[in-house]
Amino acid sequence: MYGYIVRRLLLAIPVLIGVSILVFSIVRFIPGDPARIVAGVHASQEYVERVRAELLLDEPLYLQYYVYISNLLQGDMGRSSFTRRPVTAELFDRFPNTLILTVAAMGIATVFGMGAGIISATKRYSLFDNFTMLFALAGIAIPVFWLGLMFQLLFSVQLGWLPSSGMESWRNLVMPAMTLGLATTALIARITRSSMLDVLGQDYINTARAKGLVERVVVYKHALKNALIPVVTVMGLQFGTLLGGAVLTETVFSWPGIGRLLVDSILTRDYPVVQGAVLILALFFVLINLFVDVIYALLDPRITYSTQEGS
Amino acid sequence: MNIKADQISQLQTPKSDSEIRQVWRHLRRNRMAMIGLLILALFVIVSIFAPVFSQHDPIKLNLINALQAPSSDHIMGTDWQGRDVLTRILYGGRISLAIGFITVVIGLTVGIPVGTISGYYGGKFDLFVQRIIDILIAFPGILLAIVVVTVLGVGVEQVMIAVGISTIPIYTRLVRGSVLSVKEEGYITAAKSLGIGDPRIIIRHILPNCLGPIIVMSTFRIATSILWAAGLGFLGLGAQPPDPEWGAMLSNGRVYMRTLPHLVIFPGLAIFFMVLGFNLLGDGLRDALDPRSRKYG
Question: What is the distance of C-alpha A152 from the center of its chain?
Fold first, then answer.
């Protein structure tokens, strides 16, 4: 078990190096003088030259990367070419907000998705089941930004129940989290349903019923536990979709997270912040995948065996 | 020997006419898939023949008519520059369909050869490709496309390239996986023992057998690409004015949302139905191309 976790951790290192190289390349691929691109359109010639010297932009690429990565490891991602604040500080301000939003969305998706999936599976072909399946189909086809606007129209403009943007209280979180979580709710409902149906058809469920166990115990104790593994896998994969979706959702609801910071920075050509935001989102995603893989191995011991045999 | 090899390759060319007909027969019985196909057929027809369905110009300003609510003249109203919203949605379908197909073609053009070589030969090349893919899929969802757009700049062509590039790792991994499982089949060993060269084995025997998953994935990827491209348009990183792109239309209509909600409702519905159409068709194709589910169908 520990061997598997250590191996999985080691495998993440080349990925992170690769991600850093890609992020490092962004400002070098954009046509124009990299020093000017990093310093900003309105920077003085003096500042441009200082950036050029600091980042060794006249030196070979590997030296530039060396400087970039050693700065990065010391928590230095350069300065915003717009506010001149350290990029790390900008990211530090925004990241918790993105975290709150994605975790809230995942929470909503888990509770409602699994709930709907379980009920659907136990009451197959009922009205509820049909409705859930229709919702599961529609949920993954709705553009997340459009859903956000429709929620705003309904809950803020028409009904006046919820604030349409900002983040003053928990009420501001409701709409963005619902918006971001809907597609994942749909997917989790679908996977939970099919996984539960698979498990409910197994022999040991018949045995449990034959023993005279209450249906509730059969469903929640015997079936659900075994049906959860594919659901957990999908949830792990969905975090990526949620983080990507956060970029759009944050823009709709003026939610001050990393996603909105990223989009604003691209539009204002604040490339040091773009680099920082991309790096932090990718880093976060890699860590979540790592975490999910470890949880998965804990849930299902067969996985560690098979990887050991495979390697 | 050559005659034998040819006979074998004919026997093993799996996607024969009857196979396609079988898949179609199964697909036709699937009501949801047929609804999907119908939605898509409608979109294709109205966007190709947009000038037949609407006499208005999708681009030209007509400020006297600006910001009108839906009426008999303009079923979906007009935007802030007086352009008919329905007309722009019809022409916008062309952009979305083009984005969907071109991004998938980009993904396939790189993904099929790289994935095939990676899966068939394995070794150092495979190891190298796998590490690069690990890096590319470390960017969650739409983020890789955003990174590429940052470098390339905004516009429809740039979005096609950006979203196309972000589908490459998905196809490479899918094709590699399919090739890995097909290459262990008995008929591949048979072909090899007959002395058939690798390129011929790959093109005649392996790739045709990997077609099923590729077709299914492509249907779903077109849907995702359309969603992502609309998302980029909405963020201001995609199509630029005056292009009638649905995501950009939504973004521009937002300002007037409180008084004229039709400016955001209709473009969003268009995206939703087109994506739904491809998803329904994809679900149906997956069932039709999977022999296990076909037995019960």
Answer: 23
